[in-house]
Design a protein that fits this description.
The complex is a heterodimer. By secondary structure, chain A is mainly alpha-helical. Helix content of chain A is 71%, strand content 1%. In chain A, a hairpin with a 5-residue loop joins strand 1 and strand 2. Classes of the chains: A mainly alpha, B alpha/beta. The interface between A and B is large, with 40 and 36 residues.
Chain lengths: 416, 356
Amino acid sequence: MSDATAPLTTVDGKPLKAALAAAERRARWRAFLLVVPLLAFVLITFIAPIGQLLKRSVYNPAFSDNMPNIVAWFAENPAGTEPDEEAFAALVADLRQARENKTIGIVGTRINYDLPGSRSLFTKTARKARKLEPPYREALLKIDEDWGDPMLWQVMRGASSAYTINFYLAALDLTRDAEGKIVPVDENRRVYVTLFKRTLVLSVVITALTLVLGFPIAHLLATLPLRYSNLLMIFVLLPFWTSLLVRTTSWIVLLQSQGVINDLLVALGIIDDDGRIQMIYNQIGTVVAMTHILLPFMVLPLYSVMRPIDPSYVRAARSLGATSWTAFRRIYLPQTIPGIGAGALLVFILAVGYYITPALVGGSTGQLISNLIAFHMQKSLNWSLAAALAALLLGGVLILYWLYDKLVGIDNLKLG
Amino acid sequence: MKKTLILTTALVGFAFAASAKEITVMSWGGAYTKSQVEAYGKPFTAETGIKVIWVDADNPATPIKAQVEAGNVTIDVADVEYSDAVRLCDEGLLEEIDPSILPPAPDGTPAEEDFIEGAITDCAVANIVWSTVMAYNTESVNGTPTSIADFFDTEKFPGKRGMRKTAKANLEMALMADGVPASQVYEVLETPEGVDRAFAKLDTIKDDIVWWEAGAQPPQLLADGEVVMTTAYNGRIFNAAVAEGQPFKIVWDGQILDFDLFVIPKGAPNKEEALQFIAFATDTKRLADQASWISYGPARKSSSALVGLYKDGKTEMAPHMPTSPEALKNALPNNFEFWADRDTELNERFNAWLSQ
């Protein structure tokens, strides 16, 4: 009996459990070392830049770094303090310094994000700052009355901390009023929420379209004899291998108002020359071109799931009296769910972040949120706002991913 | 595709960097870059032996911030618009240029007096005066548009319109078409009512607008028949009409004048050579030479007298210049300070308006 309870040992007397654990630990370390290069690669090229970007969306030191005196004054005096002579003196000292350091444009731009039209107030005043004499309050107000604007002081106080959520507010069409309360922006400047909604709706439409178009193709591919299905597969893959720009541009050739389809319709007498249909530079263009471009991402996972499905299941259902619809609905379709899930998720996530195709064929109503992110990265150079928009998009996708996991289960995903 | 072009050019540049002195100049592409290559680049290389590599961008001002912030500046000279030159300079993204390096006019007038007022700033030296104009295709438009108001009149002149996808210039043109005299445009645009008025005017043709982004697009849109009228840079239309024989006409009424200026990004790899290039390119003769390649006005007063014939040897350039008396009848000089200030706000509104 005592033998049974005594711990098992190896030949050299160590407890077997410990020896096993040690061996396993070594194996785990070796395995870990194998993935270290990939992990480092992902950390350096993926996680770090995304972290940088997320930081930019809440961190903008343009004002706080370059205007130290006024920042100190804000720190000493609580919100709501009327700016006194000391505050104006600090401001003038900072303006002089910023002019000297050539940073006044950065400072003005930062304030301009929160209070449009104030950039030149800073550059203009800084140009004259050297000649200013006390009392500074009167001197500044003489240059421009806007220096007395409580809204301006509220914005400067906000910017005196490098950390701010204002870019997220702007990305959600919100702003702050003179008391610092969060309010919606003017109706005619609301653009981001609309675009977020449109991006989601169009992505869902495109995902649904690729599913409707892709499901029969994948089924055909999976059930045809190999020599035919390989040929068909090439037709699916060929556009996949063609440059994105070439495919998008060929849609322009086809769809534009002087394009192939319109010319054909006119030649056939279906429409007259004045009634050419506008199929591009709007949402139709975006949906058509993106559906085509993303179709392979739906077909391939579906195909890989459908291929191993044994046809005898459906035959068995039929022999037990099921109609073909019932057999499809209750036997075949449930087995393809992992493929549908993978394809839909893939297409949706790609569609949400798509940029080049809507930029080329979307005109004004077919633009997606990614086009505005690009606008702020490349044209307006407001990288903080671009980062906030991108972070919101990322958050949205993660939430959808989580929902998917709850509803379908991420284990139930087969990518190929 | 442009990106690949820039990339390959940069790579080629890198490969040669070790062997010879050279500078990289970023400009706007198409007929405009060609005029600079011929008038500035080739003679510069012939005289100094410094090679000039030209790269294109839709707007050369935009890569500068990215390059300077990333600490990886690959261009030595960029050709930018006025408001961008001022803005980038204020943000410390440009090298300062001492105007004393610029050669005087042939008659000895110092450069600072020879250049048109405003053409030299702390960080930039202008080379041309250009303008945004409306142009039409004589074959596809019914009748003869004569004023900026006709651009917004789709009943009298049916057909699509091309416009640049940005708030700048479009708002000014909308107001002028709505009857605001050029001298009061920015005054009106300063007020919220003025902005509303401009957008309301744009609204009247919104469904008929095809938006363009690169300067080479509008002549293409006109030639393809995608639009019957478009706003465009005057030199591009001139080039298409005179050099390529396209049936395009410019309407000078309501044109918006602007400078293009040379700047040096902070930390440019070949700053000395870049300064040498700018001094060379903006002397009296080169500026006049450029005008024989494209119809942009020289930024020096002393160059005007030397502007002669187009490179085809028969077209007199003077009447095609945006600065000719005929063209200046109802013209608006772009207000750089207004745009440096309002760019963000108005483009936000413009984007919102576009997506409605």
